[in-house]
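We modelled the chain as a single entity of 277 amino acids. Its sequence is:
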Amino acid sequence: MKLIQEVGANTIRLAHYQHDAYFYDLCDEAGMVVWAEIPFISMFLNTPGARENTLQQMRELVVQNYNHPSICFWGISNEISIGGESEELLSNLHALNDLVHELDQTRLTTMANLSMVENDSPLNHITDVISYNHYFGWYLGKVEDNAPWLDTFHAENPEICLGISEYGCEGITTLHSASPKVRDYSEEYQAYYHEKCWKPSRSGLICGARMFGICLISRAICAMRAACRGATTRASSRLTGKRARILSISIRRIGRKRRLSTSVRAGSKSGRRKRCR
């Protein structure tokens, strides 16, 4: 939490599943604006059992965490239209939205859309607040595309309260460049990306933006600080793909010098992540 506060953040999206009650407590104490959501992600499964499961998880999320004052938004899905939009999907989302309002009349509902979701999509007319996961300047397009997209969306949908649920680019604290460019993983491009992302927007109308990957960034910072204290730290993160793998980063201090080594080793999906405290 201290690392999150250190970067100046005042809102946290707890994606994409239930989190430990201890972290909700920390958010309450820190005065964070929290978005909590269920793991209704990517591919919609059109079966009665799957639909009921989403409703059960939504009900449990709200009931278990209702009394945490930091929670301001209940998220009902994330990038759920990867498999396409359908009437069945819309029905499931409306049911989740209605359930939240039945259980809690004091908070707002929201969901996170893919960049590819059209501005006039019916997905943008379900929840109280709509958000997009945008990575212009990393996965596609240029970083300068972000602000014009915001202005266009607002011009076409002036009544919709819009937020940015994910944005950012990957950077490695030990990589630097005098001429930073997209996907060079340098700290300099990461800083450039963050500075240029939304500033030129003419509308200035955005209810919040959440940098994706801050936990991985924080873990790397923890590792570096531990190394500076003469400790040995291992930070692990699961990578997705056809095979589950673990990326291990070891930082050791030997005398006055630090040595950084990375390796990729096979691992199972049940592999545990070691927390950096």
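As a brief sanity check on the tokenised model: The beta strands are 11-14, 33-37, 71-78, 108-113, 129-133, 161-167, 209-211, 233-239, 245-254, 257-266. Helices lie at 2-6, 21-30, 48-65, 87-103, 146-156, 187-196, 214-228.
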